[in-house]
Amino acid sequence: MTTHTQTEAIIHLAEQRACTQSHWQRSFHTFGVHSGFGKLTLLNDDTLKGGHSFNYSFTEDRLILLLPIVGGLDYQHATQSGFIEVGESQFLSLPKGEKLTLINSYESELINFVCVGWNYTDAPDNGCHSFDLDANKNKMNALPFFSIGKFAGRQDDVYTLRNPDKGVFAFVIEGAFELQNRLLQPRDGLALWNTSEVEFEALSEGAILLLIEPNL
After folding, report:
1. Tag placement on the chain: N or C end, fewer CB within 10 Å?
2. How far apart are CA 214 and CA 204, in angstroms?
3. In what order do the strands lie in the sheet with 53-56?
4. Are residues 196 and 145 both part of a single domain?
5. Tally of domains in the chain
6. Model-level pTM?
7. Rounded mean pLDDT of the chain?
8. Is the Cβ–Cβ distance between 55 and 99 less than 8 Å?
9. What number is the average pLDDT over the span 101-111?
């Protein structure tokens, strides 16, 4: 007899996220201070005004992923600095207590980026990775620790987990998706476990999906 294990899930609605803000910066937090999904403990949706900066620091070691969505982003910390823009991602190992400064160098334009954090510091290579969502449309682009894809409306796909025992976290950057029979709107998140693959369909043109495996 074949035993089927039901996929388990927790949805994180964009409208229910906590928010911290000042007159120059706004951050929506998918996870609370003491919550997360496995080793994935941070998923912030940050917007920063032109000519301003803000800092991240943590009480535990973190592996940080910076992923620009709109505009480019300067970053600085004790051992590394640089600039990344849309179509690039940057991994950084951030020891506890060390400051990471994020800067919008544009004069007046807003930038938007996603900051992802895991509670360990083994970065793939502390490097920048490039991808082209338009040239590789309608499929997931696999990068270290995450995959990202841009899809036309009604396009579907199946994502196979690299480590099925550890689950996967889905985050909608743009548009809407039906994922494992659940409707996800922009900036909604979905934690999934007890599954080896994820089925999804884009419900809008140019929809962008981010998939993160938390415990690789």
Report:
1. N
2. 27
3. 53-56, 100-103, 73-77, 80-84
4. yes
5. 2
6. 0.93
7. 92
8. yes
9. 97
Cβ-contact 86, 113 below 8 angstroms: no
Sign of CA dihedral 107, 52, 69, 135: positive
> Which pLDDT band, with edges at 50, 70 and 90, does 216 fall under?
low
Confidence of residue 197 (pLDDT cuts 50, 70, 90): very high
Residue type, 207: A
d(CA 196, CA 159): 9
Rounded-to-integer distance, Cα 145 and Cα 172, Å? 17
pLDDT band (50, 70, 90) for residue 83: very high
- What range defines the domain where residue 174 resides? 8-12+132-212
Average pLDDT over residues 90-115: 95
Is 139 found in the same domain as 123?
no
Locate 77 and state its tokens. 């910390």
Return the percent helix, strand and coil in the chain, to nearest 5. Answer: 5, 50, 45
